[in-house]
Structures are given as C-alpha cells and as structure tokens.
Amino acid sequence: MGPLGSGKTFGMYDRLLQTMCEQAPNAQGVRPSRWVAIRNTYSQLETTTIKDFRALFTDQIGTMVMGNQPSYRTRVLLEDGTRLDAEVIFLALDREDAVAKLRGFQLTGGVVNETKELVKAIIDMLDLRVGRYPSMADGGVQPTWHGIIGDTNAPDTDHWYYRLAEEQRPEGWSFFRQPGGVIRQGAGWVANPNAENLRNLPAGYYGTGMQGKSEDWISVNLGNEYGFSLDGKPVHPEYQDSVHCPGEIPYDPSQPIVLGVDFGRTPAALILQPTAIGRYHAIDEFVTEDMSQAIFGPELKRYLGSHYPNARIRGWADPAGEARGQATEDTPMRILQAAGIPVSRAPSNQTTLRRAALANPFTRLCMDGKPALLVSAKCKRFRKAMMGGWCFRKLKIAGEERYDELPDKGPLSHIAEAGEYALLGEGEGVAALRSADYDDSEPFQDQADMW
To answer: What burial class does residue 331 get, using C-beta atoms within 10 Å of its C-beta: 0-12 exposed, 13-18 middle, 19+ buried?
Structure first.
C-alpha cells in the first residue's frame, strides 16, 4: 500500500519476475510457472496494468498477445543454463459474478493491480487457485513459491483490505506500507523527504500535487493514510496513522498503567503507559457495547488482571461519572472503584481542554524525534476513531462546506474520549487553560485549583 507515484506497481512486477526466476527447474531444466494478472475493468487493464507490466516485461524477453484475454509468454535462457517458461494471463474482474472466470485455472500465483478496487470474493477465489501449477505430473516439480502479490492505494477503514491488514491479519499473509509522499506538519501537509521513488518523479511532485486538492484526497492519495467513509471532519486531524502507529507496542512491566475511562451504555477504557523520555504509549483498549456499569467494572478488572497482572494502575474518568442515577445512590465512578480499579475524576470535562490533551502529545516530539504519543496496532477502535471515525458530520447546506459544532456521538466516540480523559489527567492540555476558548464558568479557575 502506497501513495501515488511511489513505484509500488513496478515493485510488484519486479517481485513477480524474481519469483519466476526462483522457481525450481524440472527434470528438463525448465522453470515453469503460470500467473494471472487482475484489474477491475478491461479498459484499465489495457491502459494501465498491461502498460506498467510491459515496462519490465519487454519484447526482448517474451511475447505479448492482445485480445479479449491478453497473455504474455516468456521462454528465456538464464545464465545457469536453465530456461524460464512463464505465462501471465490478464483478466478484468469487476463484480462478484466475475469469480466464475477464475474457476478451472491452475496457477502458480496472481498479481492484483489496485487491490482496493476489487471485491473480496475475487481474492477469496484466487487464493484457492494458486499453488496448483506446476505439479509433479507436469515434470516432477512443484511451485517453489505460490501466492498473491498486490498493490493498492489506501482504502477506507470499512474496506475488506483494512480489516485484513489491520484487524484480522490472516496467517501467512503479509502487509507492507510505504511512507507517505507527504506528511502532516501542523495543520497542513508538506512533502516527505523520505518518500520512496523520488528520483524517478518530477522535481516537487508531491508539493505540486497537493495544490487544489481537498484534505481527504491528499490524506489518502498522497499521505497514504486510510480514508473514512463518513462524510465528516476528524476531531483529531493531528493523528497520522503511519506516523503515530509504529506497530504493536509491548507492555513494559516496569512502568505503571494509566487508564482513561468513558462511561455510558457503551463504556470504554484506553490503556496507556508513560515512558522515561516523556512519551505515552497507548498499548491496549477495552471497548464494550450495551453494557451496564455494574458489569463493566468487574469485566475491566478481570481483563487487566489477566493481561497485566501485578501492574501499578491509576486512572482518570469522565467527571460525569460522579452523577447518581434516579434509581440508586451508586455512581459509575463508585462502581468502578468498588470493582478494585483506582480511578479519579478527570480534572475537567471542558471541550477545549480535552481536545488539547490529545492534540498536544500527538504534535509534540520527544528527544528521539518521534511523537510524544504513540498508539499500538492493538488499539484498533481508538486508531479508527482518530483516523476519522470520530468526526464532525458535514451539514447538508447547498453551496457551503459546514460541519456540526459537536462531534458525532457514535460508537467510536467513547474510546476517543477515554483517551482524552487519560491524557488530561496526566497533565496534558494545561496550556489550553489560558486560551480564549476556555469557559470561566467551570469550577477550575487556574492551574493550582485544577490540580
């Protein structure tokens, strides 16, 4: 997965050629393999997929035959005296009913161009057609490697590719992510000097390419960030998944755990750890659906005891959790404390403070040049919220681009606000106390009172 211009498609075909050459020879000294190359429409197959393929697979090493089902065949004599005998068949498969075209193919592997444009059923069927050629009956040799190689731009977070790459990670599958051609800097984007394939692009390619484009378009196509299907504006645009999520971050038993908790009928907790250099690691999350506080407290306690035994824990929760219900004297805060979870009231519920509590460490750098808040790949719901799942919904006003003043209170809002309470309790967001947006009617009038 990479941005426009990153060389990912050429890299895919280069890997294909290497794999062909690595195929073990049969008894006749021939290295046989058969491949299918897939794009979603025939016009794109002809104008982009085959054109890019031919930049590496030229007439000097093989023959291209066009038609309703284009194909390429190479029979090249290699330096070790063996002969490469590889066939690539090109298919346009744009709908689930196109799966039937794959039935009957006996393949070594497949290459999939613009993977996000294909329905999952195509990948599922292709996965069962690879590894079937060559066979022992064809000359006494089997595939040295078989599988699927694909390239893609970043899809939406509700796409099947996102679920496989970020949530399920099927055994035997690998997902690779190139750096963005642009990276976020402050409220905008700048060209990334560490982007790939820059030497093969025009000077200023990414800087010029941003001009006149929307924020969402730049983020997905140039920044290589997952998009979000809701038509809205992220509450925390500072978050850049490729920068703030370095992969799975391990638990450090030498450091305490800091909890952030949001209540309601979908209570959630974000699990963080401070580090010695002033950074916070969001290492895990505990997210529920339609669960009462009486059940949430013991379940969270059980989860923490199972995954983080003997950990030193402190926590910060939504101040609204101190409010008593009409039918009981218990409060969500008391119920959580009674379950053995040491949480305190977060210093404030004021919007500016809470937003700054996450924005500050997302944008502040530690001495190693990395952000002061990093998020583990394990925090799937929190990451999805930060990428735009928690957003200001766009208002339907003709000729204007306006958004709701308050974020959407959807299912992802709870884990996001839990993170805000945790960081606010730890002292982030204090600078916002002096901002013009601060509401002086709140009980805390200065930092001394607040803490």
So the answer is: middle
- Domain-wise residue ranges, the chain: 8-168, 179-225, 257-436
33 DSSP β-pair partners: 86
CATH fold, domain 8-168, is Rossmann fold (3.40.50)
Assign domain 257-436 to a CATH class: alpha beta
Helices (H), 233-292: 241-244
Q: pTM for this one?
A: 0.68
| Phi-psi map region of 136: left, alpha, beta (phi>0 left; psi -120 to 50 alpha) | alpha
- What is residue 42's DSSP assignment? H
**What's the token pair of residue 63?**
């023959």
Bridge partners of residue 90, in order along the sequence: 37
Tell me the C-alpha distance between 343 and 166, whole Å.
Answer: 31
Distance from C-alpha of 93 to C-alpha of 85, rounded to nearest angstrom: 26
Q: Which residue spans within 120-266 are E strands per DSSP?
A: 147-150, 182-185, 188-191, 232-234, 257-262
Chain segment 293-340, per-residue pLDDT in tens: 888 999 999 999 999 999 999 999 998 876 655 335 578 888 888 888
Contact 184, 236 (CB under 8 A): no
